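Q: Protein A?
A:
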Amino acid sequence: MNKKTKALTFSFDDGVLDDERLVGILDKYGLKCTFNLNSALMSNRNTWNYNNKKLVLHMNYTDCINLYEKHEIACHGYTHPDFSKLDYNTTYNDIYIDKKILESLFDCKIKGMAYPFGVYDEKTLKILAELGIVYSRGVHSTYSFELPNKLLELEPTCHYREKEIYRLIDDFINSSSSEPLLFYIWGHSYELVTEDDWQDFENICKKLSNRDDIYYCTNIEAIEWMKTFE
């Protein structure tokens, strides 16, 4: 297990067509990500308009089997529902089906999830534990590198489009702390609308890459890394 005291991980939701370009950038800089997918929506027919800026298309599952091979696949709800509005059985079914389909499609063991809309409740936490989900991510930025102590209520350091990210990158890179630090960045690739947006994301990746003191890892690898400091 990697014993570096700094770890960096990315998490992107929904499995949309823009992931193709995003993965290309991550792979170019040797960065690792977890992609949270909705197995009921893995078709180009599932589209929506993002802030009247662009038409967003989900990827067809046949186009993404090999795309994510250097990264982790995790659940995001079969139908991307608000779990707090569903009864116990419907919530259980949605997560269970998503997990089983993704495991079959990608020939892997699913251990993680990102909450649709960042919403969950006690019922959802109980179901995740029953289904063997190790961690699940919300959407509320902590602006911190402290290791999370509630893995099913994990919150990210920040979204990649927040103005604080460059300050956080500098703090992370320049820190000489002997304590373990986790930089957890999340988002959606469809939020990259213009070429300037894409260039800004590439600048973030370049600034964080190729450092001997950082462990570049998927979400589940970050969780396993954290355990070495217990």
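Q: Protein B?
A:
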Amino acid sequence: MNNRKLVVERKYLLPFILVTSLFALWGFANDLTNPMVAAFQTVMEISTKRASLIQFAFYGGYATMAVPAALFIRKFGYKKGILFGLALYAVGALLFYPAAQFEIFTFFLLSLYILTFGLAFLETTANPFILSMGDPETATRRLNLAQAFKPLGSITGMFIATQVILKSLAIDKIENFAALDVAQKAVHRTHDLGIIKMPYITLGFVVLAMLVIIALVKIPNGNKKKYESSAIDTFLRLIKNKSYVEGVVAQAFYVGAQIMCWTFIIHYGENLGLSKAESQNYNIVAMAIFIGSRFISTFLMKYVNSRKLLTIFAFGGIATLTGVILIQGMAGMYLLVATSAFMSLMFPTIYGIALNGLGDDATLASAGLILAIVGGAVMPPLQAAIIDVKTVAGLPGVNFSFILPLLCFVVIAIYGYRAQRILVSEN
């Protein structure tokens, strides 16, 4: 076999393994945090809409730091970008300790906001770095392979959220918490915030350990080089690139759909009479399906063009979410779980298509695709507002609210179809 056609060439193997491990680290943070919307809603006695500010802060951090991260990496290279990202990640996680001591919801939001500054650095660095590790023809497959390890971190985060946090919340076990006096509520709230903080504090120390390992291991600082054009010139070129701009838009809608489906599965389950922990167990099943489908779709890309596969999977998501909206029973929950199979290939595939052929512009272009994660900040509060309405068009508000991720899949299907047409016209 020609080595140039290998997904990962031998000379890149160690950097690939180390950088790929970072995917699991931010997957853990993502899916440890998603169930916290339901947890904080109960513990802090706030509305679904206000609790969804957890997602606004978490994914808003990406939007704030994506471009600065790209400029930093452009100047200092991949390795320093990774190290700085890990430092910010650790600081944000460790801030959960004082946040729990003060018992202020806004403090928790600030902690998550800083934590995702670090994630923005890591994702802005890792994705183009993985794409650059070998033949451009295998770049999308290589990124899908690396991204396959993100859900391994995600499912671990979900498990910790369920078994360590949601099952241990004292407030969730009290039938009439609202009737308790202020002092009794304070005791239970302190207990539960103490439970919430511990996984984040532990995570902070794990991230610090990873920082030390990467600092000591030699990793090519390949992106530290002299560019022929300025950052402003690069941005102007990217704005004129329709394929790239449409990719950023599609990515924003994909991330919004993913976060909505995985965050509000708990609310969907509660509407069916399930507890938070029971509903989160279905989320774990969804993630297991997501992981399996990621490896399957990576294999299928050997035989089916990635653009065509993206379009097919988007239509699959539209079909399952239609059932989620219209069916008022456990069959709707099963379809919501099944939706994860169709989401599996979307992020890295959209990423790879959008960055295809951009050369030196890829680092700043990557920032735009990470900035698109703001979809996960903007859309969940909109869905939460619909859920709070209770009943819409004769359907439970939580059922009807999944019209938003369905519309996201419509946008992705259009993008996949247009990307396929562009590929055909170029050939």
